[in-house]
Amino acid sequence: MSKIRLSSAPLVDSIVDGVGLRVVVWTQGCPHLCEGCHNPNTHSFTGGKNYDTSSIIEQMSQYSYHDGVTFSGGEPFAQPIPLIEIAKAVRKLNWNIWCYTGYLYEDLLIDPDKFALLKEIDVLIDGPFILGQRTLSKPFIGSLNQRIIDVQSSIKNNKVIECEL
Question: What pTM does this model have?
Fold first, then answer.
Protein backbone atom coordinates (compact mmCIF):
# COMPACT_ATOMS: atom_id res chain seq x y z
CA MET A 1 0.00 0.00 0.00
CA SER A 2 1.09 3.57 -0.56
CA LYS A 3 0.52 7.08 0.70
CA ILE A 4 -1.89 9.63 -0.71
CA ARG A 5 -2.06 13.35 0.07
CA LEU A 6 -5.59 14.44 0.93
CA SER A 7 -6.98 17.82 1.93
CA SER A 8 -8.94 16.13 4.73
CA ALA A 9 -10.14 12.74 5.82
CA PRO A 10 -12.65 11.24 3.36
CA LEU A 11 -16.12 12.74 3.59
CA VAL A 12 -18.76 10.17 4.43
CA ASP A 13 -22.43 10.39 3.41
CA SER A 14 -22.31 12.83 0.49
CA ILE A 15 -25.36 12.97 -1.79
CA VAL A 16 -24.12 15.82 -4.03
CA ASP A 17 -20.92 14.32 -5.49
CA GLY A 18 -22.53 11.66 -7.65
CA VAL A 19 -25.61 9.48 -7.69
CA GLY A 20 -26.48 7.77 -4.42
CA LEU A 21 -24.84 7.82 -1.01
CA ARG A 22 -21.10 8.32 -1.44
CA VAL A 23 -17.75 8.58 0.25
CA VAL A 24 -15.68 11.45 -1.18
CA VAL A 25 -11.89 11.33 -1.31
CA TRP A 26 -10.60 14.94 -1.52
CA THR A 27 -7.13 14.84 -3.05
CA GLN A 28 -4.65 17.61 -2.29
CA GLY A 29 -2.82 19.46 -5.08
CA CYS A 30 -4.14 20.82 -8.35
CA PRO A 31 -2.26 22.21 -11.37
CA HIS A 32 -5.38 23.81 -12.90
CA LEU A 33 -6.01 26.59 -10.32
CA CYS A 34 -9.44 27.38 -11.77
CA GLU A 35 -10.75 30.84 -10.93
CA GLY A 36 -13.81 30.44 -8.71
CA CYS A 37 -12.95 26.86 -7.69
CA HIS A 38 -15.15 25.69 -4.82
CA ASN A 39 -12.14 23.98 -3.19
CA PRO A 40 -9.24 26.46 -3.47
CA ASN A 41 -7.76 25.05 -0.25
CA THR A 42 -6.88 21.90 -2.24
CA HIS A 43 -4.69 23.70 -4.81
CA SER A 44 -1.36 23.59 -2.95
CA PHE A 45 0.64 20.41 -3.41
CA THR A 46 2.21 20.93 0.02
CA GLY A 47 -1.05 21.34 1.94
CA GLY A 48 -3.21 18.62 3.40
CA LYS A 49 -1.99 15.47 5.07
CA ASN A 50 -0.60 12.11 3.97
CA TYR A 51 -2.79 9.07 4.56
CA ASP A 52 -2.06 5.38 4.07
CA THR A 53 -4.26 4.01 1.31
CA SER A 54 -4.82 0.94 3.50
CA SER A 55 -6.42 3.08 6.23
CA ILE A 56 -8.77 4.71 3.70
CA ILE A 57 -9.70 1.31 2.27
CA GLU A 58 -10.31 -0.05 5.77
CA GLN A 59 -12.54 2.92 6.61
CA MET A 60 -14.57 2.44 3.42
CA SER A 61 -15.05 -1.25 4.09
CA GLN A 62 -17.04 -0.29 7.21
CA TYR A 63 -19.76 1.45 5.15
CA SER A 64 -21.94 -1.30 3.72
CA TYR A 65 -24.83 1.09 2.95
CA HIS A 66 -22.92 3.31 0.47
CA ASP A 67 -23.33 3.24 -3.30
CA GLY A 68 -19.91 4.48 -4.31
CA VAL A 69 -16.88 6.66 -3.95
CA THR A 70 -16.09 9.96 -5.64
CA PHE A 71 -12.53 11.12 -6.23
CA SER A 72 -12.40 14.90 -6.15
CA GLY A 73 -9.93 17.49 -5.16
CA GLY A 74 -7.63 19.05 -5.93
CA GLU A 75 -6.84 17.02 -9.00
CA PRO A 76 -7.23 13.25 -8.54
CA PHE A 77 -5.15 12.50 -11.64
CA ALA A 78 -2.16 14.18 -9.99
CA GLN A 79 -2.02 11.07 -7.73
CA PRO A 80 -3.13 8.20 -9.96
CA ILE A 81 -1.18 5.33 -8.37
CA PRO A 82 -2.65 5.49 -4.84
CA LEU A 83 -6.13 6.12 -6.27
CA ILE A 84 -5.81 2.99 -8.41
CA GLU A 85 -5.20 1.01 -5.19
CA ILE A 86 -8.28 2.53 -3.59
CA ALA A 87 -10.38 1.98 -6.73
CA LYS A 88 -9.46 -1.70 -6.95
CA ALA A 89 -10.46 -2.18 -3.30
CA VAL A 90 -13.72 -0.29 -3.86
CA ARG A 91 -14.59 -2.68 -6.68
CA LYS A 92 -14.60 -5.50 -4.12
CA LEU A 93 -17.29 -3.56 -2.20
CA ASN A 94 -19.42 -3.47 -5.39
CA TRP A 95 -19.38 0.33 -5.34
CA ASN A 96 -19.29 2.56 -8.39
CA ILE A 97 -16.53 5.12 -8.87
CA TRP A 98 -17.01 8.72 -9.94
CA CYS A 99 -14.20 11.19 -10.48
CA TYR A 100 -13.93 14.94 -11.04
CA THR A 101 -11.00 16.25 -13.07
CA GLY A 102 -9.88 19.50 -14.62
CA TYR A 103 -8.33 17.51 -17.46
CA LEU A 104 -10.24 16.57 -20.58
CA TYR A 105 -11.00 12.88 -21.06
CA GLU A 106 -8.93 12.84 -24.24
CA ASP A 107 -5.85 14.13 -22.38
CA LEU A 108 -6.05 11.28 -19.85
CA LEU A 109 -5.63 8.69 -22.60
CA ILE A 110 -2.05 9.82 -23.30
CA ASP A 111 -0.34 9.28 -19.94
CA PRO A 112 -0.10 5.58 -18.95
CA ASP A 113 -0.64 6.17 -15.20
CA LYS A 114 -3.58 8.50 -15.76
CA PHE A 115 -5.10 6.07 -18.25
CA ALA A 116 -4.68 3.22 -15.75
CA LEU A 117 -6.73 5.20 -13.22
CA LEU A 118 -9.26 6.19 -15.87
CA LYS A 119 -9.89 2.49 -16.60
CA GLU A 120 -11.01 2.03 -12.97
CA ILE A 121 -13.62 4.83 -13.13
CA ASP A 122 -17.31 4.50 -14.05
CA VAL A 123 -18.27 8.17 -14.38
CA LEU A 124 -15.92 11.07 -15.10
CA ILE A 125 -16.80 14.75 -14.86
CA ASP A 126 -14.12 16.33 -17.02
CA GLY A 127 -12.92 19.79 -17.89
CA PRO A 128 -11.79 22.78 -15.88
CA PHE A 129 -14.28 24.91 -14.00
CA ILE A 130 -14.82 28.07 -16.04
CA LEU A 131 -16.32 30.85 -13.94
CA GLY A 132 -17.90 32.56 -16.99
CA GLN A 133 -19.78 29.31 -17.77
CA ARG A 134 -20.89 28.60 -14.20
CA THR A 135 -24.22 26.79 -13.99
CA LEU A 136 -26.58 25.51 -11.35
CA SER A 137 -28.99 24.07 -13.92
CA LYS A 138 -27.25 20.72 -14.47
CA PRO A 139 -26.58 18.14 -11.78
CA PHE A 140 -23.02 17.33 -10.74
CA ILE A 141 -21.22 19.91 -12.90
CA GLY A 142 -20.05 23.42 -12.10
CA SER A 143 -19.71 24.94 -15.57
CA LEU A 144 -21.31 24.28 -18.94
CA ASN A 145 -18.08 23.09 -20.58
CA GLN A 146 -17.89 20.06 -18.29
CA ARG A 147 -19.10 16.65 -19.42
CA ILE A 148 -20.45 13.69 -17.45
CA ILE A 149 -18.83 10.74 -19.18
CA ASP A 150 -19.59 7.02 -19.07
CA VAL A 151 -15.95 5.96 -18.97
CA GLN A 152 -16.34 2.24 -19.55
CA SER A 153 -18.57 2.78 -22.62
CA SER A 154 -16.21 5.48 -23.88
CA ILE A 155 -13.18 3.20 -23.64
CA LYS A 156 -15.06 0.33 -25.29
CA ASN A 157 -16.36 2.52 -28.17
CA ASN A 158 -13.15 4.56 -28.53
CA LYS A 159 -15.12 7.82 -28.30
CA VAL A 160 -16.66 9.93 -25.56
CA ILE A 161 -20.07 8.67 -24.47
CA GLU A 162 -21.85 11.10 -22.17
CA CYS A 163 -24.11 9.83 -19.38
CA GLU A 164 -27.83 10.44 -19.45
CA LEU A 165 -28.83 11.54 -15.95
Answer: 0.96
